[in-house]
Amino acid sequence: MHHLRRSSAVMALALLLLSACQSGGSTSPSASAGGSGGGGSKGTIKIGVDLPLSGGEATNGEPTTNGAKLALKDAGGVAGGYTVELDVRDDAVAGVHNPDQGATNAQALVADEAVVGMIGPFNSNVARAQIPITAPAGLLQCSPANTAVDITKKAADGTLLRGDNPVSYVRVATTDDVQGPAMADYMYTKLGAHTIFIVDDTETYGKGLADEFQKKFEALGGTVTDRQGVPNPDGSADYTSILTSAKGANPAAVFYGGVTTTGGAKLRSQMADVGMGDLPFGGGDGIVDGPGSVDGSFVNLAGDAAANSFGSVAAIHDIPNPDAFANSYQAEYTKAPGAYSAPGYACAQVIIAAINAVADQATGMSDLREKVRAYVAEGGNSFDTVLGSLSFDENGDTSQHTISYYKADLNADGGANWVFDSQKDFGQGG
Amino acid sequence: MDPSVLIQQFFNALALGGIYALVALGYTMVYGIIELINFAHGDVFMVGAFVAMWVLTVPLGQHGGIKDPFLLIGVLLLVFVVTMIVMGVVGVLIERFAYRRLRNAPRLAPLLTAIGVSFILQNIIQTIFGPSPKTFPKLISSSGRFDLFGASISYLTVFIFVLAIVLLVVLQAFIGRTRLGRAMRSTAQDRDAAQLMGVDINRTIALTFFIGSALAGAGGVVAGLYFGQVQFNLGFSAGLKAFTAAVLGGIGNIPGAALGGFIIGFVEVYAGQFGLARWGEALVFAVLIIVLVFRPSGLLGQALGERA
Q1: With an 8 Å Cβ cutoff, are A94 and B119 in contact?
Q2: What does the DSSP 8-state code read for residue A392?
């Protein structure tokens, strides 16, 4: 009997370990060459990709990855005489972007000397975990979507993520000090909402966006009736009580700083539960995440309550040649591009252009990696991308400051979806 | 402050507390009878929510609110009965295969097994339904509401509270008044003596798991109706709060678990009302610590003599 008991306990432990491995091990490094190539006489190099690719966030990561793949294919799969492959890694664990997984992926990419540049990440808190790893290694990172301000500039407490290392991180998305105020401008001026209730998810991106939004909204003369931070990492938070509390002050609209997986859609649908369903609801690019037909997207989860919701995307919607891009994307993947497909494409273009420019001077793999970084982050070079011509400033932030606005439309072609409304260029310094 | 807001929040707290109470009942029953902290219980609740979502959307084809009151009652009855039976059976299976062999093992073994079962349930649901949140049909439309002293109360919150109380009363009567209930009480008091008196221990413990898991299943349905979405990792924090509720009320004590559930609901909701939403969970556990300092066996718990 005693022996039997012990073996059961051992089995239980083994089961526990097994299931723990399953839930944690979502990394699946899979290289995929971007086309026939053939011109790569010097050998093979890699561009790393780190994006959330599983679960609810696949709606963000997948179209972005596809954009990068398409760019490499259009370049013939070669750059600077090398055959180029993408090393695609998923930073979502259990369906949610995960900074620890992002750090693990960054370490793996840094350790592989064939990796000369990296596209990603999607989420600002993942970038916070990755930059301290890629900066000392001098691995160029190009993020298609990060918008938090203090990942490239000094934070309020004076810390700088890259430390004393030279800039290795650039982004083609503009920042929340542009996006937040842009949304404030939209809600105050265009929607005519002069009083607002603000909720954030207490994460790097969500809180930062809400802070910038609030500053501008108040500067415009608006009143913030109340502001609440609700941490919601596992989707279990209940917003009924804060909404009931906020309702007393009669705000004209609600703004949410955060992403869908940390509560955006639930907040929106619970607004209907407490009788605030008719108020306009605004958010950043964290809620503009794909059509209602995709499980876990904002429009899918909020259902009918998604009506009258507005969101911004920190990228140009009307890219210089939108039809050509949409058509070639459609031809490759048989679906329309996502909000960050073109930025993903642009990041790949930037890295490929850099490889083309410096490959002949490089003396080896680690030198190539360093020269690519220097060319993009320090050269002051301008890049001709699908988003138009752009360059990076001394912090690695893009020269483009255009915000696109989207509106949730329940009756859009092909089912409920985010529909492009307008875009606005906020020029230098927003 | 407008008193109608406080009344509104009172009902919000009753609904949230009702959900916690339903989960806490099963927690406390299982602990009462075999002194196992069943960490998989929160995940049984989560699986219940998914079973209900599947029953509603696939065979019944429901996706939104139902207007016809008779149809609504019929659908609700069906989904509650089916989910509670399915989860009851799941609970019995978990007990049979994961816990029974370990009944006389050192405490740590079944505790670890329970955590393992929790992971297994999460992974099964994640494999079948995927990791992203799923919409749950809000059968009882939130537009159905009535006015009370200026507050607008939705029927759903009243429904949740009434359901929790009814199930509590039925459970209490079952344990206090029936033969099977007596068997459960005697097993809880002294398993060996109960066995000598002719109580079928295995059947009684299985029954406890059936009832506890069925109640968690009911909690899952209610949570789905209330939140309108379900997610595979929903069970962790729900389980943690239900465990807290059970300890707060006095673990092993059935009305205590319900009381604990409602107290947690009230603490969280009023934290939100007074601008302390981000402190909600900290306040819940602060209350737990304070109560345990002054009443180590919980609010309604009695000091356990024989087997603690």
Answers
A1: no
A2: B
Neighbouring residues of B219: CB distance < 8 A, sequence distance ≥ 6: B19, B22, B23, B45, B48, B238
**Residue closest to A345 by CA, chosen among A45, A141, A75:** A75
Q: Which of A4, A19, A26, A96 to mutate to test the interface with B (most CBs of B within 10 A)?
A: A19
Query: Tens of pLDDT along B239-266?
Result: 999 999 999 998 888 999 999 999 999 9
Contact A234 B135 (CB under 8 A): no
Structure tokens, A333 = 């993947």
Angle between helix A240-247 and helix B254-273 axes, rounded to 10 deg: 40
Nearest-neighbour CA in chain A from B117: distance (Å): 8
H or E element in which residue A96 lies:
strand A96-97
pTM of the entire structure?
A: 0.82
DSSP character at residue A84:
E
- On whether ipTM exceeds 0.90, the answer is no
Distance CA A111, CA A108 (A): 5
d(CA B234, CA A266) in angstroms, rounded, equals 13
Count Cβ–Cβ pairs < 8 Å, chain A vs chain B. Answer: 167
Give the three-class secondary structure for A169: strand
- A195 bridge partner residues: A223
Looking at CA atoms only, how far is residue B68 from chain A in angstroms?
Answer: 20
Sort strands B151-154 and A417-425 into parallel, antiparallel or unpaired: unpaired
| DSSP classification of residue B172 | H
Alpha helices in chain B (DSSP H): 3-34, 41-57, 69-94, 108-129, 155-177, 179-189, 191-196, 201-227, 234-249, 254-273, 280-294
Q: Which of B13, B102, B231 sits opposite A9 (nearest CB)?
A: B102
Nearest by CB: B268 against A56, A95, A241:
A241
Spatial separation of the C-alpha atoms in residues A98 and A265, rounded to whole Å: 20
Q: Are A139 and A118 in contact (CB under 8 A)?
A: yes
Chain B residue closest in CA terms to A4: B101
Q: Are A124 and A153 in contact (CB under 8 A)?
A: no
Q: Which residue of B has its CA nearest to A274?
A: B142
Cα dihedral: B13, B19, B24, B29 (round 10): 130
From A273's Cα to the closest Cα of chain B, the distance in A is 5
Give the chain A residue nearest B124 (alpha carbons).
A19
Q: Do B5 and A229 touch (CB under 8 A)?
A: no
The 10s digit of each residue's pLDDT in B47-76 is: 999 999 999 999 988 887 888 889 999 999
**Looking at CA atoms only, how far is residue B283 from chain A in angstroms?**
14
- Residues of chain B with C-beta less than 8 angstroms from the C-beta of A239: 272
